[in-house]
Structures are given as structure tokens and as C-alpha cells.
């Protein structure tokens, strides 16, 4: 699990952007010298990583938008953030 607390405000690191690739009709995460395909679940999470919303607010927003249990959503969000923080794609 990430060391992020519920009041943390995660955001994409400088130079990292979520963009829709019209040629492939797919969402991709653009980082310096890197393009990462983003699956639909990741896109929903990444869209909310603005630095304005807290981690708890991101999870609550996702829980309101989808039918999964909040605890499962939080686990998925934290797992993705662990990977993204480790790769320097997200700032806690």
C-alpha cells in the first residue's frame, strides 16, 4: 500500500499527461520518452489525479460512479498509485 494518507492530494508528475490517441482510439499516458497504454480503470483513476482532490475524495467519487465496494475501489486506487509513484509518474 502507498504511504499516502486520505488527505494526500496526488497528481500527475510534471511532464506527464493523459491523452486520447485518435489514431489508436485509446487513452495513453505520455511521459518523457514514454507512452503507456492506459486501461479503462486506470483512465478513470488518472482523470481524478488533479492535485485538487484528496485521495479520499478520489475514492469517494469513484465509489459514487461505480457499483464496486468502496474498500475494493480504494485498494485498486492505492495499487495503481503505488506503481505510478514508483515509476515517477505521480507525485504524492
From TrEMBL:
Recorded metabolic or biological pathway in which this protein acts: Cofactor biosynthesis; pyrroloquinoline quinone biosynthesis
Keyword hit for Thylakoid: no
Segments forming a coiled coil: none
TM region(s), chain numbering: none
Keywords: PQQ biosynthesis
Pfam families: PqqD
Summary of subunit composition and partner proteins: Monomer. Interacts with PqqE.
Protein's UniProt name: Pyrroloquinoline quinone biosynthesis peptide chaperone PqqD
Amino acid at each position: 500500500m502507498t504511504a499516502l494518507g486520505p488527505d494526500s492530494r496526488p497528481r500527475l508528475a510534471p511532464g506527464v499527461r493523459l491523452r486520447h490517441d485518435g489514431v489508436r482510439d485509446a487513452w495513453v499516458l505520455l511521459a518523457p520518452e514514454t507512452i503507456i497504454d492506459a486501461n479503462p480503470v486506470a483512465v478513470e483513476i488518472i482523470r481524478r489525479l488533479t492535485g485538487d482532490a484528496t485521495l479520499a475524495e478520489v475514492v469517494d467519487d469513484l465509489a459514487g460512479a461505480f457499483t464496486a465496494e468502496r474498500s475494493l475501489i480504494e485498494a485498486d486506487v492505492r495499487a495503481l498509485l503505488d506503481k505510478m509513484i514508483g515509476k515517477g509518474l505521480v507525485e504524492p
